[in-house]
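Lab notebook, design round three. We kept the backbone fixed and only want residue identities now. Task for the bench partner: fill in a sequence for the structure below.
Input structure tokens:
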């Protein structure tokens, strides 16, 4: 696969310029896959309290699972960070997450 290195080393990030206030917020990330097929990419929308604050399109997604023992961490990143420029692992979220919901749609 000629794009393997690009897929493994490229990171995307959608940023919002406004800081969150210290009270409770509802944060939603909605990813729309541009399939069908493998590694087609998609568009991600970040919403805070129902308002869209950031949107980004990535040209491709992961073709295959690279590390079989990578965990899905909530509140802590214990194994491999998303972007070494943002933080180093192990990295712990030091506040409180009241609720976490996943809504996984079926592939069409």
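Proposed sequence:
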């Amino acid at each position: 696969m000629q794009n393997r290195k690009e897929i493994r080393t490229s990171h995307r990030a959608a940023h919002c310029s406004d800081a969150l206030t210290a009270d409770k917020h509802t944060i939603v990330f909605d990813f729309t896959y541009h399939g069908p097929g493998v590694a087609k990419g998609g568009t991600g929308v970040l919403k805070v309290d129902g308002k869209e604050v950031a949107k980004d399109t990535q040209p491709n997604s992961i073709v295959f699972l690279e590390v079989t023992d990578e965990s899905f961490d909530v509140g802590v990143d214990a194994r491999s960070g998303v972007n070494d420029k943002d933080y180093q692992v192990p990295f712990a979220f030091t506040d409180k997450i009241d609720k976490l919901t996943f809504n996984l749609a079926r592939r069409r």
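Keep this in mind before ordering anything: Residues 1-9 have pLDDT under 50 and may be disordered.
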